[in-house]
Amino acid sequence: MTVSITDAWFTYRGEDTAALSGITFDVVSGTMTAVLGPLGSGTSTLCRLFAGQLVSRGALTGTIDRNGTVALLGDDPEAQLSGMTSHVGDESQLACRLYGHDPADAHRRARNLLELLGIGDLWNRRLDTLSGGQRQLVAVARILAPGPDLLVLDQPAQSLDPQMRVRLVTVLQEFCDRGGAVLITGHQTDELTRICEEVRFLDAGRLQTATPTVRSVGIWDSRPNDDATLSTMLRSQADPLLTVRDLTVDRGSSRILDGLDLDLRPGELTSVTGANGAGKSTLLRALLGLLDRSASVTGTITVSRLGEMIRLDTLPAHARSAHLGWVGQDAGLQLSAATVARELLHAAPLPPHRRRDRKRVRDHRLAAADSVLAEADLTEVADDHPFDLDVARRKDIVIASALMTETTVLLLDEPTIGRDLAAMTRLNAIIESFLNSGGAVLATTHDQRWANEFAHRRLRLIDGRARS
Amino acid sequence: MTAHSRQSGQGPTTTVGPGQNRNRTLPLILTLLGTLIVIGTYVAVLLTQPANLGVDLGYTTLWVMLGYLGGGVLLAAGTLPLIPRSVLALIPVAIALNVVIGQIIGNYTPVPLYLDSIGTVLIGVLAGPAAGAFTGIISNLIWGVTLSPSVIAFSSGAAFIGAAAGWAARLGVFRTPWTAIIVGAVAGVPAGAIGAPVAAYVFGGGLGAGTGGVVAILQATGLEMFNATFAQSMVSDIVDKALIFALAYVVIQSLPKRIVGRYEFAAHSRPRAKKSDGPDLTKQAESAQPAE
Amino acid sequence: MSHASSDMHAAVDAAEAHRPKRRLHPATELIILACSLLLVFGIPSPIVPVIILTGTVVTVTVSPAVRLREWAMTVGLLCLPTLVVLIVVQGLFYPGTDVYVLWQVGPARLSVEGLSIAVQIWLRVSALIGLCAMFGLGADSARLFDGLRRLRLPSAVAYMCASAIGLIPMIGARTRHIIEARQARGWATDSWRVRIRLLPGIVTGLVTAILLTVDQRHDVLESSGLNSNATATALQDHTDGTGQSLLRILTPLVSIGLIVASVTGSLPLPGAAQLIGGA
Fold first, then answer.
1. CA closest to C223 among chain A residues
2. What is the 3-state secondary structure (H, E, C) of chain A?
3. Is the ipTM of this complex over 0.90?
């Protein structure tokens, strides 16, 4: 089985510049290939080209010889589920059954794949109770079950935690050993790209012929380099901005956080790593007061503001916003306006004021929005719709909207996902300017390299406690 | 070749999709037949039925149900082939929106509104009257089969609103908020009129807390049942549809280009692109697409 | 590892093997639902919904697939408010002139005719709600898809219905998360005024995000073979013998026969007036 593409050019309908120019590429069975490129270089378009989904979206020229079936996995976990089923078991058998396989055969294949991917015990679970990473793995099982010849994965590691990535690597290697081919695209190097025999680079729709270094093409290199020293950033000795003592979160009979202690000092970035389900998001939600009633939270959360200590755990969630700025994992949930500028203007309620002061308050808000736009490097996209921009930019917009509330502590949930080198630099610049103005940042991440290089303190969440 | 045919280049095996050189006469005939049956039922009920329910409920419910449902099914069968493929993926969202908001408002709040056609109107604005009508019918059928069977009978009213939204969108009504609200209120009149016989003869005036309350009050003032239901239906539908059209206006204006760009019919509802801004904005929008 | 996993497989498979055998094929359930709708609204006697309701209750108690408590709670939640509304609208404010009044306070008068109408309408609606709740077609998208395909609806329509069912809980969950996100920015979302003010933004954000997701899902489905020419197997394993096929053909015929008999006057079921008159 091969897929060979010769001199393919593609332009999206309604656009002037070509998304892909002169792509000549062969994928042979039994190989794993990676194509990496910065945001906007055409990696997702290349995936769709292989899967044959571009015909209806624009003008395609060139020859594409495809003798075999191609299965595509996109990067958005929510969008990879078919929507036709409610349970994991049905979803993983879906492709087989729609193609007319024997039911028992479909059942067996799906079962085996789920086992190999480590999620065999999820068979009877409803799909809406799964995490993003689990959904991606269910989607992988679904597309692998009928036995395609070429598997195209767009940013597969994005939603997966380290254990899941290892499982996926095993499954992919087994797939290749049996004669399948794998193509991975993305903006970062990670465990999956490391096992690829060939790594090509894509820049502005063209495949690079020379073999440049990863950084020169604008890709973020997330491989931890053990020989580099851990960042020796100066740690501040000032009093902590946020103090958490003995934070315990119980949900039913299971204890998620167990007497956790945490200090966030001004000018410091603290990173929190840990397996999925270890409680990273729960920690952030507990700090914000957003856990539902089924979870019982005890412990003290104190914020120091202008010399005064304020107990946060007694305040309702909306009152904590003046002290804690939250940027959740899914940026789409926190965006609602039609342009970036309007998003920043209307993100937070205006402070309580009298009617006659309204104009002054509004002008103040406008000025604040302009300065935050500059700080977050969003001025040139200020009039664009947030959903017209890429995922990393959307996250930046949500960070900017958190900055609008004039908080001193930022809580970032997985800010490094899906970023190429330029987007990572932008993120670091935003964080640095925030730290320089005396704020503290707590970020959860899977990216060990980023944590090693840029965090002042590194915590790991194990057994419900934070350890350095 | 029109742009539609390019989208359906991969051709499904089901009878959906324009631009396949298909005969449009059969779908149009079915649609016309369905509409005639609904209107015929309506007129027949108005002319022949007493204004109050008798203790023996009689066969009115049978005729009303058969007429409206039968007409609705014919309408659905007729409009389905007229809907472009790319819209089919949107319709489930519209159905889900209708059901969620309609169920919350109808069952759990004492407001005499329905608010169960926001999805239908959105589809009408994005994809035209045929898609809007189809969404209205299917939405009520699904809602009825899974949660609340009483709404099945109102599917023809929902079809009308979907079609009305499509026609209004083609006239450019959704370019300004005021036209949207006014046209919505105007469209509420026939919508209320279509729904009144069902509410009256099948359900005795209304099942929702708010709507039933209004009917009760009107009956207490001496109006007969059908007239009370008719009056309530009118007022509720006028306000309801005005609100829905206003909300649809807000949503349509706030959708990103990636979505609106895919549906040519939606161009009727967006502000006319200024020549100088046009290419840059689309380029920026589309350049974001490949990275997604 | 392989022993444990194969044991687990065997246990889960054994548990699953019971599941399909107890439930009818969803196509049969849909047909029963449609016929009940016709019967309940077609035959004016209150006996019909009572029969259907008792049948439903008996099946729910006997069947291990549906739990009585859950069913009762769902039905109660939907039916009791309807009963209250009907009693108010019909019972208290029945506008007919020739009534037998039981009790009167101000403009509200509790009349026998009004009450009987209220009860009849309520019985009809409850019978249908009970059936819907028992079949639970809204719980599992794949099940509904299989039922609709078996009834020979085009796969596009079946897909739309199944997909809509799955999106309903997703919309609920996303709305909750969006409201939480607003809270984290300082909006006091517990108050209704604030919620209404945020409503346009919330709906816009919700619709945009979901439309983007669903857009990609269509590509996913096409590549998963939704429109492939191969005859698709059902998405789930259902029991579907000749008995059920026969049931699917007989039930509509019998229903239509009953209705025709009732319209022509040859069905000897008592009407409401007779039942009350006798009492």
1. A71
2. CEEEEEEEEEEECCCCCCCEEEEEEEEECCCEEEEECCCCCCHHHHHHHHHCCCCCCEEEEEEEEECCCEEEECCCHHHHCCCCCCEHHHHHHHHHHHCCCCHHHHHHHHHHHHHHCCCHHHCCCEHHHCCHHHHHHHHHHHHHCCCCCEEEEECCCCCCCHHHHHHHHHHHHHHHHCCCEEEEEECEECHHHHCCCEEEEEECCEECCCCCCCHHHCCEECCCCCCCCCCCCCCCCCCCCEEEEEEEEEECCEEEEEEEEEEECCCCEEEEECCCCCCHHHHHHHHHCCCCCCEEEEEEEEEEECCEEEECCCCCHHHHHHCEEEECCCHHHHCCCCCHHHHHHHCCCCCCCCHHHHHHHHHHHHHHHHHHHHHCCCHHHCCCCHHHCCHHHHHHHHHHHHHCCCCCEEEEECCCCCCCHHHHHHHHHHHHHHHHCCCEEEEECCCHHHHHHHCCEEEEEECCEEEC
3. no
